[in-house]
Amino acid sequence: MTLPHPNTDQISLPIVLGVLGDPTRLAIVRYLASKQGVPLNCSQFLDLGSKTNLSYHLAKLREAGVTRAEVVGTNRMITLRRADLDARFPGLLDSVIAAAGDDPALPAVGGHDIEIHA
Amino acid sequence: MTLPHPNTDQISLPIVLGVLGDPTRLAIVRYLASKQGVPLNCSQFLDLGSKTNLSYHLAKLREAGVTRAEVVGTNRMITLRRADLDARFPGLLDSVIAAAGDDPALPAVGGHDIEIHA
DNA sequence: CCAATTGTTCAATAACTTTTGAACTAAGGA
DNA sequence: TCCTTAGTTCAAAAGTTATTGAACAATTGG
């Protein structure tokens, strides 16, 4: 049960930019970045939208090559594809995250501690 | 006859990313960047679409704060708002332009020399 | 086995974006 | 003044994206 991800060389600049041009998805990426590589499951983003809606946005991020989702039990553990994005578009992710870092107009995740059932 | 532009501090990250997430607009930005600050008029982008369609895309770029348009006679001279974007989102524009620089999937402008009627 | 948890899929709808042609404005040159 | 050039605006059509709720699948714990 592995989910489809583009290879690094298949990641497209306009698609990545388009995907990041949505406040909810930008907030997801910012929160993932703030967690420094620690994988998160979907439920930890529920502040940003309904379960169905997050499933949609997380699929967009994964299909664009921005995130990786690994199936662990009933959870999908999500990480940023930092190294892959840096290799393909040097500096892009860092500048986006830095720019998003201090934007009060973006939605934010509360940051509850959640036990993962795996 | 000046056109509306956002102030530097009004430029929004998700809006800029969304606007750049379109191959035509990314090609416009890339071509402007390749011209190193030399202003271009709309007609010089006609390789990328119809006159009406370019008017639409150039308005999007201007309203997002990515470009500046100055009215000179019947022309709109268009430049990248490099300094403003660098001030607001350091490194972002450079990494986008670098990433777009070698993308054969993006449309391109021929680069005809055109006399400007002003 | 049963119930709870995690997340997906589907269909519907609403909202937005892109593209087009026709009509228009405004300035410049003959 | 009349014609051309440069670009906008408008309304329509087409296409895409976001959001929702109901139903579903898969796994885990009791």
TrEMBL record, chains A, B:
Task: Note one Pfam family from the annotation.
Answer: HTH_20
**Residue limits of the HTH arsR-type domain?**
15-94
Name of the protein in question = ArsR family transcriptional regulator
Q: Name one GO molecular function term.
A: DNA-binding transcription factor activity
Matching InterPro entries, A to Z? Answer: ArsR-like_HTH, HTH_ArsR_DNA-bd_dom, WH-like_DNA-bd_sf, WH_DNA-bd_sf
Q: Which Gene3D superfamilies match?
A: Winged helix-like DNA-binding domain superfamily/Winged helix DNA-binding domain
- Give the species: Rhizobium loti (Mesorhizobium loti)
